[in-house]
Write a structure and sequence with these properties.
- With about 425 residues, the chain is α+β, with helices and mostly antiparallel strands.
- Among the domains are: about 90 residues, Rossmann fold (3-Layer(aba) Sandwich), CATH 3.40.50; about 70 residues, ATP-grasp fold, A domain (Dna Ligase, domain 1, 2-Layer Sandwich), CATH 3.30.1490.20.
- Helix 5 crosses helix 6.
- The protein binds adenosine monophosphate and glycine.
- The site of adenosine monophosphate has 12 residues, from strand 8 and strand 17.
């Protein structure tokens, strides 16, 4: 028998638990490691106590353990150059190099890239100086969108409907430096209206392969009310891949992006996530992510029938996706996030979670998974909350409604002090 392959997943959230869970159903039965992982991931993988930001530490681990493939979940290690570092040592890794990851790492780089390649996006101006930015904010028509250039943990975008909000946004970003160096430059752009869609595609740098579509629910409360969060739930599919709208976006955005990256010699393998506003003038790019969306991934990968490890491996090699065909479960998937009380504001951590099913009881056949997003093991083996978004209960059903009901039924058996979830996930549209 040939040796089992060794796979390292980098990250500790619901997206990474979903990736670990998907790979663990590979017929090749790989040995899975996760750095740093969480309490749920620890049931399917060996967790290693190295943070995603410690890319040198991850390299040492991958070399020592002879890891065959590393899969990077979050953006920070990608922007820090983990892929260049690993590939420089001849190690196979899923994700874009530092250059390509700039599409997510710098909103200004992203806008300039869009302009160079004729991809439609909102008109914008760039400022390096807070006085000039404030003068602009006071002159231009409302509403407007103010964005910190760099990574800001999803908090650096402010849609301002009045001047005070716009002024405060510029001051918070450029003067107070609430996001550190990410705020040394700002972008001020036209506010687009329409509904939002995100399209994710795998790319090997040459070919691209669209993933099934999904939508996430950003606002904290039912009926899309309240403050924005990292995502309170998701469903897949949204549009069918054959829909002319999706084909149009693949052609006008994804194809042009992959070609543009290749032309600019910015190696990009992994997932390209395009966040798009469907406006009256057609699809317009809002932003790229250089990684899987969270919690969209929970709904999407739960439907993937093709050997997930083979898919990740193919997308990690230049031209590797040429022959790859993805097969999907026809059923709908819905993911409901159970969050800590107070999230997205401040919240307590270390709260015991009751009612979690033992490992293995959730599975592809049952079409039910409790993905852990922010959890850790307590000293006596109990599972504790360790983040704002704690769990992502994900179910498959014949319809979106059926999947939603099944996920809510499973969620009803789980409790922790302060648990907060929306009650309309999969039952109303996400936007
Ligand atoms: P984030 O995903 O945190 O970077 O925030 C991006 C979100 O801000 C998008 O999902 C949109 O809802 C909103 N947004 C960004 N740019 C614009 C724009 N030009 N017009 C309207 N909304 C925008
Ligand atoms: N759910 C959106 C994101 O992952 O950025």
């Amino acid at each position: 028998m040939s040796e089992r392959k060794k796979v390292l997943v980098v990250g500790s959230g619901g997206r990474e638990h979903t990736i670990v869970s998907a790979i663990s159903r590979s017929p090749s039965n790989p040995e899975i490691y996760c750095a740093p992982g969480n309490a749920g991931i620890a049931e399917a993988a060996q967790c290693v106590d190295i943070g995603g930001e410690d890319i040198e530490g991850l390299l040492q681990f991958a070399r020592a353990e002879k890891i065959d493939l590393t899969i990077v979940g979050p953006e920070a290690p990608l922007v820090a150059g983990i892929v260049d570092l690993f590939e420089g040592e001849g190690l196979k890794i899923f994700g874009p190099g530092k250059g390509g990851a700039q599409l997510e790492g710098s909103k200004i780089f992203c806008k300039e890239f869009l302009c160079r390649h004729g991809i439609p996006t909102a008109a914008f101006e760039i400022f390096e100086d807070s006085e000039a930015a404030l003068a602009h904010v006071n002159e231009r028509p409302l509403p407007m969108v103010v964005k910190a250039d760099g990574l800001a943990a999803g908090k650096g975008v402010i849609v301002a409907h009045d001047r005070d909000t716009a002024v405060k946004a510029v001051e918070d970003i450029m003067v107070e430096r609430n996001f550190g160096d990410a705020g040394s430059r700002v972008l001020i752009e036209d506010c687009l209206t329409g509904s939002e869609i995100s399209i994710m595609a795998l790319t090997d740098g040459v070919n691209y392969l669209p993933l099934e579509t999904a939508q996430d629910y950003k606002p904290a409360f039912d009926g899309n009310k309240g403050p924005n969060t990292g995502g309170m739930g998701s469903y897949s599919p949204y549009y069918s891949l054959g829909d002319p709208l999706v084909q149009d976006i693949l052609n006008k955005v994804i194809r042009k992006t992959v070609e543009g990256l290749a032309q600019e010699e910015l190696p990009f393998k992994g997932v390209l996530y395009a966040g798009i506003m469907l406006t009256d003038e057609g699809p317009m790019m809002l932003e790229y992510n250089a990684r899987f969306g969270d919690p969209e991934t929970q709904s999407i990968l739960s439907r993937l029938k093709t050997d997930p490890l083979a898919v990740f491996e193919a997308a990690s090699e230049p031209g590797g996706l040429e022959e790859m065909v993805l097969e999907w479960d026809e059923r709908d998937a819905v993911c409901i996030v159970a969050a800590s009380g107070g999230y997205p504001g401040s919240y307590e951590q270390g709260v015991p979670i009751e009612g979690l099913t033992p490992a293995g009881e959730d599975s592809q056949e049952a079409g039910l998974w409790v993905y852990h997003a922010g959890t850790r093991r307590g000293e006596t083996g109990e599972t504790l909350t360790a983040g704002g978004r704690v769990l992502g209960v994900t179910a498959l059903g014949e319809t979106r409604q059926a999947a939603s009901e099944k996920a809510y039924e499973a969620l009803a058996g789980i409790s922790f002090d302060g648990l907060h979830s929306r009650r309309d996930i999969g039952q109303t549209m996400a936007n």
